């Protein structure tokens, strides 16, 4: 089983994350930000990566540290669980429709973190979550996980649908990319021999 734990303690946040890449999408998520919990639950459910995420952050300041550090810890846990990335499919692409909204997510578990994020939000908050932190969540996750990540909302109207389709698209693309390819299960998927 490809599992990892990350414990991250700073003056701003205390975080415990456990992931199991070969899970069934079981989760227990508590960050103190309800909408962020809802999104991480979608990420787990649709990637089939089991995730326990517990963050106690300085929400009396604002939601920035809690959002950023939770993304970093989940990204670090995924990277640690992938190890030398032997046998993985490496690439994943998913279209995530949600009613009137459609988002495409394409990613490469490359070891070269990058984010392209194109999604228009027209409201300042979803639940209590500041929408300006959504792109920052994806950026922090991509950096920590070492993933080249492209997220593009193709069209949509409802802001809840747009952000949820971004997370569900990430989940489905990640599910493909972390999957062991049975035709090459013992090889690192790069002509360089490492990722
Ligand atoms: Mn929802």
From TrEMBL:
One of its GO terms (biological process) is L-histidine biosynthetic process. One of its GO terms (molecular function) is imidazoleglycerol-phosphate dehydratase activity. Its EC number is 4.2.1.19. Pathway: Amino-acid biosynthesis; L-histidine biosynthesis; L-histidine from 5-phospho-alpha-D-ribose 1-diphosphate: step 6/9. Gene3D superfamilies: Imidazole glycerol phosphate dehydratase, domain 1. The keyword Cytoplasm applies. InterPro entries: IGPD_sf, ImidazoleglycerolP_deHydtase, ImidazoleglycerP_deHydtase_CS, Ribosomal_Su5_D2-typ_SF. Belongs to the imidazoleglycerol-phosphate dehydratase family. This is Imidazoleglycerol-phosphate dehydratase. It comes from Sphingobium fontiphilum. The gene is hisB.
